[in-house]
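Q: Could you fold this chain for me?
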Amino acid sequence: MEQHPKQEHETCKLPIGKNEDVEFSEEQADAADLKARERAAEADHRAEQ
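A: Sure. Below is the predicted structure, expressed as structure tokens.
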């Protein structure tokens, strides 16, 4: 798919960062989101031990 120069320029303005805070929304969560939250909680629990 061909991108126009303006689209490429706009893409460059995206924030760069590995660790960004995001808010979890129960209302917008799908099954994959819920599973990911569960896995993250299990990983946090293991890390605390």
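A (continued): The chain has two helices and no strands.
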